[in-house]
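Handout, tutorial session.
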Amino acid sequence: MDFGYLQVLVRNVPPDADESVSELVEHFFLVNHSDNYLTHQVVYDANKLAKLVKKKEKMQNWLDYYQIKYSRNESSRPFKKTGFLGLWGNRVDAIDFYTSEIEKLCKEISVERERVTNDPKSIMPAAFVSFKTRWGAAVCAQTQQSRNPTLWLTEWAPEPRDVYWHNLAIPFVSLTVRRLIIAVAFFFLTFFYMIPIAFVQSLASIEGIEKVVPFLRPIIEKKFIKSLIQGFLPGIVLKIFLIVLPAILMLMSKFEGFISISSLERRSASRYYLFNFVNVFLGSIIAGSALEQLNTFMKQSPNQIPRTIGVAIPMKATFFISYIMVDGWAGIAAEILMLKPLIIFHLKNFFLVKTEKDREEAMDPGSIGFNTGEPRIQLYFLLGLVYAVVTPVLLPFIIVFFGLAYVVFRHQIINVYNQEYESAAAFWPDVHGRIIAALIISQLLLLGLLSTKEAAQSTPFLIALPILTISFHYFCKGRFEPAFIRYPLQEAKMKDTLERAREPHLNLKGYLQTAYIHPVFKGDEDDEEEEILGKWEHDGELVPTKRQSRRNTPLPSKFSGSSSPSLPEVVEERGQP
């Protein structure tokens, strides 16, 4: 059964002194969408409750660890200190301590759960609304609901796995302010990010270390230590800063208030690509930080900027060849070997793993990470376009990289990574836009380069290239982009008709009324799995993978197919006996 395109998120529900948010939503849709409205689920501000539940799970994990430890040696009870990280504080019985802490947390969770469900202030002016037909949902999601365009705002709801619940509690009116703040912060991050790197790298030099810690001078002056510091320490510092960058960009996206994981990753990917373009591509061609580049460009006339960069491009071909080999080829090799997850797993296994649940979580490979992988690949695509004409010797290195990347990532997606959500190809418009931008950049830089050569007379004729590329972009934007934003009513009507013919007695309400309940209001994991299997036997679907994993989840996706594997196959895939 395909449950896609039946849910709509409505925000900015106007306050009413006589009705609750839930009653107001129900009455509004019964009046304005009486033929298609099915049910709804209001959005709760359950962030505090989620923190308590997470803290309880952590405490329960420690209790399981100490109980297992005691069961192996019942001659002595395990003890712990109550201070920070167990380093100081009163020495208490570990099992009794965590048992009492869990009991306290259970009471707090019960009180907080009661408060959230009963306190009107905990209910946000938003709701997930489900419809009987895709046609009705499409009409609601893609039209203005009120004469006041700032009230009853509707949009397509992300699938349940894709919802970022923490941001649903952010008031809608504050989103514009948050995004303005982050836009300014990202500007300063892009143009000043190299300043702390340069400062730390100066401290990581021989002179900097001797100035800060002069008593280490006899050790630093040794030939091996000196060569190690000079050769590796600055590069390691740079890599550490760049490793931290995606996490910073993701935090910025979360602060902006996006309500789905896919939109968080899309925004982070866009900023990561822009940062790489300014600080890696332009920063390597024009020596200096991004701020110095901006200062250089502001002192020139606009028509001189392509010329300045065009002259510098051929001289950096060797650097980018080595960059592709070291960062690109080595990165693909590290991807197939899974070196980073392997190291992280062993660190977690040594320091953090206490129970089998911890070990299973430590072994979880996670998702592919579109917010970092896709911008890096598009940076190499930009390098290939720029140097295809200028220095064709770089092309074989790019082709080898893309060939390896295709084989490796295809294998990883099928056999290794988990699919955390289904975004209905929402990444593609961004990817297409960056490809077009790379084409235009390469054409402008080619114009700048040719203007310095004897072929300057041909430059005016090449102006047609970016004009044609921009025209092609607007054609694609008008022809294909609506397919990623709007759902055709003709397609919705056709699917509704087919569904009624195939399953005339289908009960949608039983599933849809619980699909968007906050995770903290659901039962424990085992109960959810039994519920999922029982639901699937009637009308649900599971995501089959080639790995035995307990993390397979229901697929209430917008684009899930109608065919389903048999129940024995699903049980076998889930590793159940």
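The second record follows below. Compare its token runs with those of the first.
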Amino acid sequence: MTLILNRRGFLAGGSAMLALHPFSVRAQGGQAHLRIMETTDIHVHVYPYDYYADKEIDTVGLARTASLIEDIRAEATNSVLLDNGDFLQGNPMGDYIAYERGMPEGAMHPVIEAMNTLGFDASTLGNHEFNYGLEFLMNSVSGAAFPIVSANVVTKMGATPAEDETLVPPYVILDREVTDGAGKTHAIRIGVIGFVPPQIMNWDRKHLEGKVEARDIVRAAQAHVPRIREEGADIVIALSHSGIGAVEHEEGMENAAIPLAGVEGIDVILTGHSHLVFPGPDYEGREGVDVAAGTINGKPGVMAGFWGSHMGLIDLMLERDGDSWRVGEAQVEARPIYERGEDRAITALVESEEAVLESVAQEHQETLDYVRRAVGKTDAPLHSYFALVADDPSVQIVSNAQTWYIEQMLAGTEHEGLPILSAAAPFKAGGRGGPEYYTDVRPGDVAIKNVADLYLYPNTVRAVRVTGAEVKDWLERSAGMFNRIEPGREDQVLLNDEFPSYNFDVIDGVSYRIDLGMPARFDRDGNVVSDGGRIKDLTFEGQPIDPEQEFIIATNNYRATGGGSFPGADGSTVVFEGPDTNRDVIVRYIVEQGTISPSADANWSFVPMDGTTVLFDTGPRAAEYLNDVKGVQIAPAGDGPDGFARFVIRL
């Protein structure tokens, strides 16, 4: 049964303990303070719990964000609560529901149950909502006690986007009441429209092809926003599950928040998808945004981190304009649920809301039982602390399993006999996830939670057929992970912090070295930016690789269909589409082996640079495994920022 924490009403209850926002204090007759609250990229993190580490944590959880919601409602005369997508997938509870318990028609998804408990007013779809297929998605959202909108996922294309038939309603107009500064109640109509990256058609082609199509975000907005206005909306809020990217609009762009904010008729933009925080230092100096003012292309905008880490707040001072309302002033904030001290310690700023925990307590326990099942043993540790600087056992085991699987799948086909390589990336390698965000499996039993820790996403296995030249360029794309290093200088920063670790593919089956003194051939988005190359001494079976020779690369559906923009992986080179997830393949591999002996084979390294050292930040527990690192001279170098440990590498 859903436990309503607070009525879904628009008028917030006051609190003697919390001060009203200045807009509520100074609003006069004909003025009303409206507070817009955003969650985004929850990824099924309802409990403050790390299912991979099997322990409670203070950095995640909608149950924690829920406590902020109650306080934030009390600070404002009027408020509305919105979610910006990516709520159905992203942790073992999501996988348990999808693969074990199931979502038959009429069942209730735990994250929807939690959102109902909190009284959300509306949500949009994120790209990960499609990971488990359309039937799973639609059965899940059918339990929502709030509208879910998305304007650019289309079941039947019209002559124009305005004439499309969409998977869910493109927008909704919320009829609410606001109380102005004189205590008078007025009607207000709030338009809410949603968007998702059109790249879902590549990322989840298996589930979506022939069933839906995706429109360009800005084109869909230009078609639908005027209709929302014509239907009497006083203000329009865009739920943009799309990051803050380029200023200029490009057809089909993934991170379209800036040009979307420029669409006439949109008053407020809520963003997400990128797992960053706006306003904040993540976007300092970025063209098209004003961090101090909290604006995106001149409009109030917010991005509330991920996994419940923040509550996004946009405070509007609305002013009566005849029979309608217009936006006067605006203030923007992303309010965190925790803080990290100089000593690396995490301090929780809120407690969990018990009603939210209770709403999914059964599914939480079932998830714990699910992830604790042992599937085999490992006689050596599996960790990712050094995965970005040396060949790594956690990546190696994924590659081994993928190769093992594809060899079986291609037996008896026209591709049998071609050399099989395997591409895998470290998914948990610190970065935005923080200094605890690493794989760390000790010797002994390997449970499902450990496999999910090795491979975070429910991707399915793919194989692509490429040339030796494309293998080299694939590795050149990965080598954008590193900054250019000047020979003969000490203590240069090694990693490009704009480059996500999941795009650092290591290809097993070939050997190669990376020359850090050369410019990267590709930028973080996969665009060619130089004619040079960092990949040196690329060999296959001890011989220089033949650019014309053909190879099979075992990978996943995301990479094989264009995710990350890797040469040779645009969807046209796929020769095998597996029905199995990469995680399932790893589980089967471990079950068959019984006991695995993970050991990196050191098939890649850096080209030596005399008199040169670089700095590398990783998790503090990395020091325990320092003697296991192969092919690189690395030593502790004190504390890094934000709780990381710093190491120095002598090239």
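Points raised in discussion: The radius of gyration is 25 Å.
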